[in-house]
Amino acid sequence: MGATGNVGRQVVARLVAEGVPTRALARDPDAAAFPAEVEVVRGDLAEPESLTAALDGVESVFLVWPFHDTAGAAEVVKVLGAHAQRVVYLSSTAINDKGPQSDPIPERHAEVEALIEASGMPWTVLRADTIASNALGWAGQIRAGDVVRGIEVAPTAVVHEGDIAAVAVRLLTDHSHTWRKYLVTGPRVVGRDDQVQAIAAALGRPLRFEALPLDVARESMTGAGLPAALIESLLSMAEFRPRSDLVTTTVADLTGHPARDIRDWAAEHAADFR
Ligand SMILES: NC(=O)c1ccc[n+]([C@@H]2O[C@H](COP(=O)([O-])OP(=O)(O)OC[C@H]3O[C@@H](n4cnc5c(N)ncnc54)[C@H](OP(=O)(O)O)[C@@H]3O)[C@@H](O)[C@H]2O)c1
Q1: What pTM does this model have?
Q2: Helices marked H in 204-249 — which ranges?
Q3: Does ligand 1 have an atom closer than 6 angstroms to the CB of 130?
């Protein structure tokens, strides 16, 4: 699930490369463009009954929850529990296990984790740090100029989506990871300007990050047509999410290669910003 997304597409590619029989759920199978080895089935997480046939005979499910609230999540988890043998859920390192959540994004991930844990079905949770591919959202601004304007967010150890996918494949295919939570981060804590500077180095031209006041950011995101719930979640993240100094060795421990730096990510994705 989420197979056409930044992380999910790489999970699918790695499973195929390892010769694991793979079925991908897509809302529009004709547009999904997967390799021939992949069985593509139609389904929509907003219509739990559409998942039943897609789950027939499935062993491990990779679950992303792409919505801005958890309406319908209990029904989806129920269907997963009834039709699949185990689930690997892509969650967030921003969850605070010791107290209230800082903002709606970790709140939503914690709620889905709780539903999965209460379901009784075998689970593994992959909590990812900020995904490097979020920066693809800056591509339009970078093509058009040398300033990236956006919300300032507290620094975290931004992680390459390919490293998340590599860990996910280990969790999907090795059942010894069941009933455990894994925290997956990049190799160092970086801020927005560090990410922009990595892209600048990859492109060989100067760029700078300019933090927008939250009311200006709200106006700009509304003008760009982003859903209101997403805008409010992002603004809350900007306002309340604390800095995270968490850096884990999960990528190296599970995959045998070190987590890639954002400079590596930017070099690989330079064409996306030209
Ligand atoms: N962004 C971060 O920094 C971050 C950090 C930690 C965790 N996460 C988690 O990681 C998840 C995946 O991230 P990503 O960057 O890979 O996401 P993404 O590129 O935005 O992809 C979202 C995926 O969800 C699918 N989807 C959307 N609505 C759906 C629906 N109604 N039914 C079925 N599938 C639907 C999309 O498929 P189609 O549109 O093709 O149907 C797409 O495959 C996020 O949802 C979030 O929970 C994100």
Answers
A1: 0.97
A2: 214-223, 228-240
A3: yes
